[in-house]
Amino acid sequence: MAFFPKMTKKQGIGLLLVILILFIDMLLYSLLIPIVPYFKETLQPTSTMIGILFSSYAVAMLAATPIFGPISDRIGRKIMLLVGLVGLILSTVLFAYSDSMGLLITARFVQGISAAATWPTALALLADLFPSSKRGAVMGIALTAISTGTLLGAPIGGWLFEASGHRTPFLAAAAVTVVSFALVYVFLREESSRTASEKLHVIGLLRHPQVAFIAGIVLLAEISLCLLEPTLPVFLTDTLQVSPAAIGLLFAVMTLGYGLIAPVAGSLSSRFNPYTLMFAGICSLAVFMPFLVWAGTLWQAALAMAFVGASVGFTLSPTLATLGEIIDRGGSGAYGTAYSLFNMFHGVGMVAGPLAGGILTDALPVSAAIHVVAGCILGLGILLFVRLRLSAGTRSHSVNKELPF
Questions:
Q1: Quick one: signal sequence residues (predicted)?
Q2: Residue 62's Cα: distance from chain center in Å?
Q3: Which pLDDT score is estimated for 304?
Q4: 321 burial via Cβ count (<10 Å: 0-12, 13-18, 19+)
Q5: pLDDT at 347
């Protein structure tokens, strides 16, 4: 089983450019984290304003994704990627020179809109370039690029900030994004035209039973992952007396587990039933989440974080290739619309996860809240899978035929 499939020069260039784009996207997303204390000291925002600053990215991405993905199906991937990269450059420069919370929130909002242009378009480009037999592996590699950018953004931002001030991380990131823009402009080659038959609507696509299952699985995984960010650090600090640096390393371990397993799960999805793999991943997530609060030492917590991250990666990686296969079976090339759906539920998870975590931990101790979440994940995952199996063998008139089980 090859995790890195053989590919043509055109495919290789496309994959490298997608890796670079997604890496930079998530690098910019997490670059802000270590600089927040500086802005909090200099601008003295309320906690509510800090919350708005972080949530504005997901809100913007959620609002813009249904627009940009389908547009890329009509005008092409290259133009939309270039537009998204220009937006990332502008938002990053705006971060560097913001002197008010209003400008910072605007920069974060523009960053979210830009991500709505780059994420689904980059994934759709991979679906354009690779046949279904290779798509699982390359989608897994793309998810690894995302997790790597998330993993490195905060430490790189912190190091550059300490070296030469708060503007340097953003200006350096803007320079790297300019280089990425140039590389995409010069080297990316794609099909020059799209047909009217490739136009689909996101809501219509969601009526497809298998797509609805994938959307539900993505939402469960993303909410579970994102609700840990505001709740787990406080719990670990209180129970294990770990430092902020140690908490950062624990989340890095979780991200590393996610990134390492994603290509493996992607490759497996072309050999085994991808829906069963997704279900296995969501069950694994439900099983390992309680270990986060059962851990009695730092090493046990790190092991639990690794398994939780790997479970999320194992769950999400098959979803990308399977969405592309559903589009293929319908005789359409509307991959941008399909991956817009993935991005939308990713954004919903980013918004709903911290909110759900806050509500639960206001009502329950963190340990009890994690157990409740794990039980809900397992129960809803089983419900989604049973519903999918009951729909097997039927036809979806909104998009295409069902895949066989």
A1: none
A2: 12
A3: 94
A4: buried
A5: 82
Q: Which two tokens stand for residue 387?
A: 């519903």
Distance CA 346, CA 218 (A): 7
User: Are the C-beta atoms of 64 and 116 separated by less than 8 Å?
Assistant: yes
Mean pLDDT, residues 188-208: 60
Confidence (pLDDT) at 49: 81
Place of tokens 């290789």: 12
In terms of residues, how long is the chain?
A: 405
List phi, psi (to 5°) of 395. Answer: -110, 140
Helix, strand, coil percent values for the chain (each to nearest 5) = 85, 0, 15
- d(C-alpha 112, C-alpha 108), whole Å: 6
Residue 225 and residue 206 share a domain: yes
Beta bridge partners of 401: 395
At residue 78, the pLDDT reads: 92
CA distance 126 to 122: 7
- CA 353, CA 227: separation in Å to the nearest integer? 4
Does 398 score more than 70 pLDDT?
A: no
* Strand-pair partners of 395: 401
Closest by CA to 281, choosing from 233, 319, 244, is 319
The range of the structural domain enclosing residue 340 comes to 195-405
Both 234 and 281 in a single domain? yes
Report H helices in 165-208.
Answer: 167-187, 202-206
Is 90 within 8 Å of 35 (Cβ atoms)? no
Same domain membership, residue 84 and residue 126: yes
Whether pTM exceeds 0.85: no
Q: Is the confidence at residue 403, as pLDDT, over 50?
A: no
- Residue 320's nearest CA partner among 28, 1, 22, 6 is 22
Q: How far is CA 226 from CA 55, 62, 114, 128, in A?
A: 12, 15, 21, 30
Q: Spell out the SS3 assignment of 300-330.
A: HHHHHHHHHHHHHHHHHHHHHHHHHHHHHHC
CA 140 to chain centre: 12
* Residue 250: pLDDT over 90: no
Q: Which two tokens stand for residue 346?
A: 């990713």
One domain, residues 109 and 257: no
End-to-end CA distance of the chain: 22
